[in-house]
Amino acid sequence: MKRISQEILYDDFFLISDDQRNLIFSPLRRIVFEVFDLGIKEIRKCQKDGTIESLLMERAVQEKKAMVNRVGRPFKPMRLVLSLTSDCNLRCIYCYAEAGKQHKTMSWETAKSAIDETIRNLLEEGKEKFQLTFHGGGEPFVAFKLMKKTVEYVNSKWEGKKDFSVVTNGTLITPEVADWLAENNFRLTVSIDGPPEIQNRQRPKANGEGSYKDAISGAILLKERGLKFGLRSTITNANVYLMEDLLKIAKDLGCGLKLEPFTPVGRGTDEDILSHDAYFEQFMFASELAKEMDVPLKSTYSSGFDPKCIFCAGDGEMFCVLPNGKISTCSRVTKDDDLLAKMFIVGEVLDQKVEIDAVQVESLRHLNVMFYDQCKDCFAKWYCMGGCHNTRLLNDGVMPKDHCDLEMQFLWVNLIESVESNKKGEKAHD
Fold first, then answer.
1. According to the model, what pLDDT value does residue 429 have?
2. pLDDT value of position 382
3. How far is CA 311 from CA 26, 118, 220, 223, 315, in A?
4. What is the C-alpha separation between 192 and 230, in angstroms, rounded?
């Protein structure tokens, strides 16, 4: 990866450079333009004589976007994630939740109470859409009967718009399941890590058999019923150079692909850690192939040109209910004995009510890029939002440098693409 330098010029304006190009970037105004040697000289002159503000504000034609700060606000989750079970039919070698280690399934009373609480919050806030995702520490379709009962209850209680989604390994999707998903207009994310030799190594069944055949069969059933779905692949040392194969699988299935670099938590070991340089280089290569193949491709790293307000649920409006009824604000915290459970578990769904620890929620609200000294002067901070809170806490309160470098590299590429697109637009206009 190239080294990117950065310098705050004034307020929200950065001068960022690699060894070939210089950009002026205002993330909260969503302004980016290229400057050359003469422009750099003018900037330095204005810095010396104190006129840098007027120089930059001439280009500030867009209002500065205010970032949402939820410190001090009531916690009213309006997007519900149900982790129905900790059980799983696979034994993925890197599973963050160590799924299958426990065999806990959520009670119907817990699921019902969580739905009722979400509906109350939606009505109080005047929201029109109920959003429910099945995801968490196990395979949702292991608890398919409970999933069906849950969706039926939502349909009976909420007459407005509904958005159902599920993250799955795909191996338990039968024609019956696929029909039901289509009837309820589900969106799905299916985890497939590569061709058979990779998928079967990284995502074996509990009995040791490979999962590739069943996962592909499940995805084909989704395709045949016209469901919206995408593939998600965990990238390790074993498949970092096989992104073309992943694109071909996505192409055949008629869906998009999202790549997620491996993180050594849960069952994950250091031997599967990949080089961030290799990931970036291979992703750039895959990006060009994806355009040729007409396959939507994303990374979990910065992939857009709009600043975000929050990184994840830890300071947002979403909560995840675990199989035992505990409420977690972190997708990696799936059980009481997780290392950071005391930090991210903020309440419990009890019979007919939900209890929230307001003090704990407020402490999580400060896990925000606005409060991170490490991020204070970084041009990418409003895009990565300081990165994963869990990762930061496990790393003594700072994000690993290679993570930050990768975020900046991805955003730099997006900014260059924006500059080039603007140039083409200007030429077309002329």
1. 56
2. 87
3. 20, 21, 33, 31, 8
4. 10
What letter would DSSP give residue 413? H
Orientation of helix 243-253 relative to helix 276-293, angle to 10°: 30
Domain locations along the chain? 5-66+368-429, 79-358
380 burial level (CB within 10 Å; 0-12, 13-18, 19+): buried
Which residue's entry shows tokens 């030799």? 197
| CATH number of this structure's domain 79-358 | 3.20.20.70
Is 131:79 a contact under the CB 8 Å cutoff?
Answer: yes
**Which residue bears the tokens 């895959």?**
286
The average confidence (pLDDT) of the chain is 89
Q: What is the largest CA-CA distance in the chain?
A: 73
Using alpha carbons only, how large is the chain's radius of gyration in Å? 23
Q: Would you give the DSSP letter of residue 171?
A: T
Does the pTM of the predicted model rise above 0.85? yes
Whether 73 shows a pLDDT value over 90: the answer reads no
Cα separation, 261 vs 140, in Å, equals 23
Residue 233 makes CB contacts below 8 A (sequence gap 6+) with: 191, 192, 193, 194, 239, 246, 257, 258, 259, 260
DSSP state string for 232-284: EEEE-TTTTT-HHHHHHHHHHHT-EEEEEE----TT--GGG---HHHHHHHHH
The span from the CA of 242 to the CA of 422, in Å, is: 33
